[in-house]
Each structure stands twice: as C-alpha cells, then as structure tokens.
Design goal:
This protein is of the alpha/beta class and about 375 residues long. The chain has two domains: about 140 residues, Enolase-like, N-terminal domain (Enolase-like, domain 1); about 220 residues, TIM Barrel (Alpha-Beta Barrel). It is built from 13 helices and 14 strands. Strands 4, 5, 6, 7, 8, 9, 10, 11, 12 and 13 form a ten-stranded mixed beta sheet that branches. Strands 3-2-1-14 form a four-stranded antiparallel beta sheet, sandwiched between helices. Helix 2 packs antiparallel against helix 4. It starts with a strand and ends with a strand. About 50% of the residues are buried.
C-alpha cells in the first residue's frame, strides 16, 4: 500500500443530556476521523480518540495534521505492525519533549486502524477475517455509559432495544450509587448481566469498601475503582481483598504495563483509539485470552472505533471471539449514529458484524456534514 493522501474530518454535535462520569461531564459529542487513501484510491478509516476534556478532539486532529504528512505521504506499507512500531519509535522523542504521550499515542492508533482497514479492503476481506480466519460473525455486547441520574430507567429502555447486559457509572456518593445498583439488580431478567464503572474514583480503602457491597449486590465486574496509575502494590492489595472481578486497562499505555495488570485484572479492556491501534490491542487481546482473562474492548467515542473494536473482539482467541462483550455507548451521539446507519444493531444481546470488506461500511460523512468543524486534506 502506497499512501497518497490523508483526510482528517472533525465534527462536534450538541446533545440534550450530558454524559456524566465521576470526574466530569461531556456536554457535546465530538469526533475526528482519519482516512488514509492509497495510490489506487482505496481508503481506510481510523478514529482519533477524544472525549475528555471536551476540547481535545479538535486539538488531536491538528496534531495529526502537523505530525503525519512527513511520516506517511509517499510511504509504502508492506508490514503494518512493523510500520506502526516504526512510527511509534519515530515520534517517541516528540511525545517526551512535548510531554504528550497520550495525544501522540491516539494519533498513531488512528493511523494503525486506518492501515488495517485499508489492507482488509484491498484484500476484499472483513477485517475480523483478515485478523483470524476463524473469526465469529456475531458477538455479545453490553449497553454502556449509564448515567447516575437515570441509569435504571435507561436499562429498561435499552432492554426494549435488544440489550441484555448493562454497565452503570458509579462514584457519585453512596446513596446515589446504592440506589441505582440495587434498583437495576432487582430488575434484571434471567441471563442478564450487570457491571459498574467507577471511572478511577477512589483510593484503596474506598475501593475495598465499595467492592464489598457491590459483591453483595451481585455485580459482574468492578471497573477502574482506582486511578490507573495507582502503584502495583495497591492494586495487588485490592485484588486480594475483593470478592468480585476487576476490569480495566483503557487508561494504560504499553504492552508491558497492560500485561503486568493481568495480575489483578480479570477483564482486560484496551482502547483501540487511546493506545496501540489494532496492532497492539489485538496482540493484547490474544495474550489476555491465553492467560485466562476476558478481553472486552473499551470504546466510548465515534463509530469507526466501535467497528474496529467489534472486529477485534470477533477475531480474538484461536477460535475467535473469546467470551468477551463489545462495549456499546448508549448515550446520545448523533455523529456515531448517523454515520453508522445501523451497521451495528443489537438483537437479544448480540450484534452481527457487517460482512463487507474492511470494517464493513464506508461511514457516511455526508449524514453529519451539518456538524462539521474542520476538514483537512494532505497530499
């Protein structure tokens, strides 16, 4: 593949109800897509991660436009992992000097996504089949991002839409958290599962206390109870003290850091847009499954990244799919919904992957043109 052109498109749409976490809110939904066009006119799609803080999407798009032309234009890519790791090495000093390892990692993750999508389209294969010939065609999923103000009501609504698994955000005070958790658990139907995400809210002592009552309630996993950079010793103490599975890894960067966390995490949740792209996140997925862990890709942004996550989950493990679930943000996001056009729809707790080549669709940017912020073409 010879890269001839780079397209960066940035959108931001207003929403009626903010997305709420224990550390802040998302007042609007933004998205920056990266498209790589080869010399034959074939295009691959990537998603530049950005939701917290709200200004980061536009910034990372500009960072991509600044850093990528010299690295990509005119370059021929024969081996995607080798090329991607070369990019990481090339920008290492910049990431250190600018003190921006996160933004640089997200830009390169988008490049890697786009290269894999491009290669799969050129091969006329779905991305999951390129990753693993035994990849599954359908995968289980869960409704994510349930907010503290109306989480139990959203469970009822999403159940009617086809979801059978749900995840609530906690960390808003014991009265609110316990009220929501118990109301949701009491209303679950047979076979349904329920998880919670504290968004790095607590210290060790607080996390142990919360884990105790969450285990009593029957929660399926406890996600990011402490900051991701909490010292390993404290994570090990938490693991030894709790009676329910721990989930995380979306805020960890680097293969070694995530593999180290296998010691205390039961559900491994790398984010294809924040670090690693398809190359490293898929490698982590297979390592996690081989280590007896469950791979559940994290995603809470645009539609392109969710499609990449779905394909990796379908392909992970020797027989494809493992036993993980796809995270599907059910908060209002007109950008994601309009550009996907129903490509990933839930039915009785599972989604069918689109069977076309690459990630399965050519996302419809015309459908979200009214929310465009920027358009950058580099050649």
């Amino acid at each position: 593949m010879k890269i001839q052109r780079i397209h960066i498109d940035v959108f931001r749409a207003p929403i009626e109800k903010q997305v709420v976490t224990s550390f802040g809110t998302i007042p609007s939904r933004a998205m920056a897509t990266l498209r790589l066009e080869d010399s034959d006119g074939v295009i691959g799609w990537g998603d530049i991660w950005g939701n917290f803080p709200t200004i980061t999407t536009e910034y990372r798009a500009k960072l991509a436009a600044f850093t990528l032309p010299d690295l990509l234009l005119g370059k021929t890519v024969d081996d995607i992992p080798e090329f991607y790791h070369g990019l990481v090495e090339n920008l290492h000093v910049l990431a250190v000097q600018a003190d921006e390892p996160g933004p640089v990692a997200s830009v390169l993750a988008a490049v890697d996504q786009a290269l894999w999508d491009l290669a799969a389209r050129r091969a006329n294969q779905p991305l999951c089949k390129m990753l693993n010939a035994n990849a599954k065609d359908r995968i289980p999923a869960y409704a994510s991002g349930l907010n503290p103000g109306d989480g139990p009501d959203v469970v009822e609504y999403q159940r009617a839409q086809g979801h059978r698994n749900f995840k609530l955000k906690i960390g808003f005070g014991e009265e609110i958290d316990k009220g929501n958790v118990h109301r949701i658990v009491d209303g679950l139907s047979p076979g349904e599962r329920f998880f919670v995400d504290a968004n790095q809210r607590w210290n060790l002592e607080q996390a142990i206390y919360a884990a105790d009552w969450l285990a009593e309630a029957g929660v399926g996993w406890f996600e990011e109870p402490m900051p991701a950079d909490t010292p390993d010793e404290q994570w090990r103490k938490l693991k030894a003290a709790v009676r329910l599975p721990l989930a995380g890894a979306e805020n960890l960067r680097g293969m070694d850091n995530i593999e180290t966390a296998f010691a205390w995490l039961d559900y491994i949740q790398p984010d294809v847009g924040k670090w690693g792209g398809v190359t490293d996140c898929f490698a982590i997925a297979n390592k996690a499954i081989a280590a007896g862990k469950t791979y559940c890709p994290h995603w809470l942004a645009g539609g392109v990244g969710m499609l990449h996550s779905a394909h990796m989950l379908a392909a992970a493990g020797g027989s494809g799919g493992g036993d993980g679930l796809l995270e599907m943000d059910v908060n209002e996001n007109p950008l994601r919904d309009h550009m996907l056009g129903g490509a990933l729809s839930i039915n009785n707790g599972v989604v069918d992957l689109p069977s076309q080549s690459g990630i399965g669709i050519a996302p419809d940017l015309a459908a979200i043109e009214q929310w465009r912020v920027d358009k950058i073409v580099l050649d």
